[in-house]
Design goal:
elongated, nucleotide-binding, hydrolase, 8 strands, alpha+beta, GTP-CH-I_N, GTP_CycHdrlase_I, binds guanosine-5'-triphosphate
Length: about 270
């Protein structure tokens, strides 16, 4: 097994098979440093979206606001359906470069299909956190650990453009607010459906949960199989990569971390 521990050397593990665990006891520790109480994407809640005038995908940014994080990061991103012809043309060239005849019957529609498939594999680029969360953030006097585990994940290795896939477990310690449970799995979709490396994916998921509900701690463990290590290259078919990000109490308090890992890893 290949294991990568990102935070404190910790290395342990479609929505159908994910499990939710609400723990009965919380290990008390210090609150998280670096909390932000600001809204996601800098939204302040009033006025029309600026996305239309920018010619960019819909968002909740407010006219007159500074450009939101989503649009800052995605400035210049084309409307995705419009790039299908260009992508299909590239796939056609690829088929020809392989020595195939792109005009043979079986391949006639392949370039367009492949373009659409690639857009699906990377659909996270057209999503933003605020829209995905859809205000499913609830005031709740609950400060026990919440764990949603075994969330299926499919992503694309940014080095070889081949898939890596596996499962994600997320835990957080609420501080007055809880997140709709499905939204944790949706956060995984937003960041996994892009060109990624597993370490960045793991951290982005944790930071998104932090932004959403400002908990006193967030823990994320991702276990992935990388096709670039399985089907090609070093060809280690049983290798797994395990990454984790521990924030706040999960980083500072060993007992809290251990409780999460026990819940996340139990079958
Ligand atoms: N850290 C990290 N590395 C990754 C991830 N996905 C793929 N890689 C690695 O990216 C590296 C690219 O190395 P290169 O030597 O440039 O490419 P390569 O010749 O295809 O490498 P091999 O895979 O060893 O054949 C490889 O070691 C991959 O295993 C990831 O999610 N995280």
């Amino acid at each position: 097994m290949v294991e990568i521990g990102v935070a404190n050397g910790q290395q342990q593990q479609q929505q159908d098979s994910s499990k939710v665990v609400v723990s009965q006891k919380k290990v008390v520790g210090e609150t998280m440093n670096g909390h932000t109480n600001g809204s996601i994407n800098g939204q302040n809640g009033a006025g029309p979206s600026h996305s239309k005038e920018l010619g960019l995908p819909k968002c909740h940014c407010v006219k007159g606001d500074e450009i939101c994080k989503y649009h800052e990061e995605n400035r210049g991103l084309p409307v995705r359906e419009l790039v299908i012809p260009e992508m299909a043309s590239s796939y056609r060239s690829l088929l020809a470069a392989l020595g195939e005849n792109p005009d043979r019957e079986g391949l006639l529609k392949t370039p367009e299909r492949a373009a659409k498939a690639m857009l699906f594999f990377t659909k996270g680029y057209e999503e933003n956190l605020e829209e995905v969360l859809n205000d499913a953030i609830f005031d709740e006097n609950h400060d026990e650990m919440v764990v949603v585990k075994d969330i299926e994940m499919f992503s694309m290795c940014e080095h070889h453009l081949v898939p890596f896939y596996g499962k994600v477990s997320i835990g957080y310690l609420p501080s007055g607010k809880v997140l709709g449970l499905s939204k944790l799995a949706r956060i995984v979709e937003v960041y996994s459906r892009r060109l990624q490396v597993q370490e960045r994916l793991t951290k982005q998921i944790a930071v998104a949960v932090l932004k959403a509900v400002q908990p006193t701690g967030v823990a994320v463990v991702v276990e992935g199989s990388h096709m670039c290590m399985v089907m090609r290259g070093v060809q280690k078919i049983n290798s797994k990569t395990v990454t984790s990000t521990m924030l706040g109490e999960f980083r500072e308090n060993q007992k809290t971390r251990e409780e999460f890992l026990k819940l996340a890893l139990s079958k």
